[in-house]
Batch of 3 targets.
Target 1
Amino acid sequence: MTGSPRENRASTAVANLRRAAAGLGLLVLLLLAAELTIRVEDWVRFRTPLGPSLKDQSELSVLDATGRHPAPGSSYSKWQINSVGTRGPEPDPDKAATRVLVVGASETFGLYESPNREYPRQLADSLDASHCPADVLNAGFIGMSLPTVEQDLRLRLRALTPRLVVYYATPPQYAEEIPVAVVPARSGRVSPPTPSWHLRFLPRAYSQLKSMIPPLSDALRQRDIARQRAEKPAGWVYETIPREHLDAFDLDLRRLVGTIRGIGAIPILITHANGFTGTPPMGGKILRAWERFYPRATGDALVTFDSVAAERIRRIGADSGVTVVDVWRAFHGVNAPQLFADFSHFTDRGAARMASLLQPAVSQALGCRN
């Protein structure tokens, strides 16, 4: 027996509503399962709390009376900050006389390497293997400008009484504005990074989607670059980096050398390597990713700036009697996609090569026999 048309329509609507509710419930369960899986994975791999946590590695920083730097005792995923605010193990008091501070930006802090495979940690392993034990501390952090590194050494890191300070320069920071900003120190009560409840699944899924569909990732970069440049006046984009920007980098680096010596340490400078001098070099999509970080310069201008800045670093080394490890030259002709995860950040193999290039200079400065 069948009902009236109105009753049939009502019955169909109820059935459709139930199916929609069941589908929505299933989707919610799948999302909850994915979120829980990621949280359990983070806990197993990195002991990240299952509950509130930091959102990303940039939240590891704190701003206090000594400026911006990693917050002591904080952690996110594979990034662990020790009690003195450097990445990695605690300082070794038995090796205090051979303490080496490695300072710089994200290339030093480490982004894509496996846990404990960033180049400062691999440098420590290389020194131990060559019977030159040293207390190597990774004092780099994401986005640390050269003036902020100088401030951090002068106000905070000097208390660690390093024997050597190794600085890995990031000249492309000077492709934007001059003077390059220093994050000012702040007095008063300082709050540590605050964990929060947030979805971990969506950022992970978005990242995976971009990696699975390279054209999508490149299209998003191009759109972002175009948007940033559209808001600026004509002529804002540099085809070549103005000389005054290079001069500002030169002046700030000379000031850093003076600060390192002023705290009683020996400076070692490193030229900046990138993925576009290798054989084969990184491709155009990666170059556009570099432009996205520094939209005021074209990709070709960034590559050229690294080249001319390397020459300035060599000149500063000669003028000031400072050892320069020229990784810009050493990474020429290498298989860039094997050593770089993007335009300038290393893979495990790239970090290993970096450590092997640094080890002789650091050993010699420490008085070890190679």
Target 2
Amino acid sequence: MTILVVNVGSTSLKYALYGDGDAPIERGGAGRVTDLAAALDEMISQLRPQLADVAAIAFKVVHGGDVTGCVLLDERALAALRRFAAAAPAHNPPYLLAIEHLRHVLPDVPQVGSFETGFHRTWSPEARTLAVPAGWEERYGLRRYGFHGASHRFIAERMAVLEPDARRVLSCHLGGSSSICAIRDGASVDASMGFSPQSGLPQAERVGDLDAFAVAHLAAGGVDVQQAAGALASQAGLHGLSGLSGDLQDLEAAEADGHEGASFALRAFAYAARKAIGALAAALGGVDAVAFSGGMGEHSPGLRTRICDGLGFLGIELDAERNADAAGEARISPDGAPATIWVLPTDEERIVVRQTRELLTAPS
């Protein structure tokens, strides 16, 4: 079964073609796209010889409220993506454009959406509920959903192989978009992100957690709410904290050159991550293992050190040499430590492809 996975960003397009295995047989795309429709047409042109064998086009979609899991992208699913577009402005609109464009160009190829929220359907009512006025959850979909589900699911499954006795796992997906997930016996219990991908830890350019009345305060001061939302989704986070950049490599290089804003942004991010780890450890009743993934989590020994510093009371302790030398999949905690710590490259596409195959082959 051949599956085309399309990964859409606000200014990027990447794709991967999968056969029957877990590894892609072809990859392509561009990191800087000014015309998404034209980029999609170029992708189709590149893949034209293989399109006859494609059983489905799969997307790792982000926010559809109660439409979640892995589903066919029918009108109900598209309506849900549109309804929550304001909650995921960097994700839902470009995905909707791509889905609708490919629907028009390739009308006979089924489209499948693997929602990032799907892994978190196992949360308790206490974990997912927001203390909003009665009826608002049903009317507006206001509750906590959690995101990065494909990544956290992959980490949960990989940790079950590497550490089969580790029942309580903290999955730290740290990159341009970051979240930490508490996992018990392979199932998501809670996470740092809540209603939207803007919540939780400071992101590269997105604000992270913010008191709702901060926006009311801005509005009372004459700031347009839509303008405020746009700025909080594109000019905040590490970029806003540093006054320089939201990119980890830029910040670490600037810190080495003495840039105080960069240093402060990295310290503030590590503090937020440490605090989230403590809260989620409480939700689990302790920690058996921690996994770092994502661009920042995998490639920055310094950030991992900053985050783990002071977490010894949870049994979280790094081996400095292993941490510095880690490349690819690696354990970076000392032998015999109460909690093992791993660097684990994630593979979200593998989860999307597997779920798509399961959906297409399930008995009707």
Target 3
Amino acid sequence: MIPKVGLGTYLLKGQEGESIIQTALECGYRHIDTAQYYENEHNVGEAIKKSSVSRQDIFVTTKIHPDWLDKAQLCHQTEISLKKLQTDCIDLLLIHSPSTKGVPLEETLAEMIKLRDEGKIKQIGVSNFYADHLKEALDIVPDIATNQIEFNPSYLNKAAIDFCTKKNIHVTSFRPLAAGELLDN
């Protein structure tokens, strides 16, 4: 189960970032979302380690950078993420967005299945995928856990939401408050 509410950690770095993440955990957050691109996985790992919340009670999502989706890089980068996060298993590993280097999706997902079979990740997901990429992904991995896309009251992303709903793919929203722009609306 993916917790319904999570803390996105984009821009949370250093001691301040660790403190915010740790405070969120103490306040009841149990889903922490990071990415290699954020360059803060080590801060997330430290915050979890310093928290009074057991790692088993925390759901950790991270994302593989779109430059590193070939078989060798994906495996290597996942190992780096595991070390930085100070964990033996990532609860949800996402492809941050389709490959920027033309790596076939089949190659990437086959490696992710292998990582799941080895127990290094629990679930496979995608981010910033739309219908064409999702159709291809579902032919390879029929149990895509989630598609993380921008979704908020000012950006409904209806076509992507409808497609995911039809295919039983959970949608994880990033920028649910439009980076704060909706707070005064």
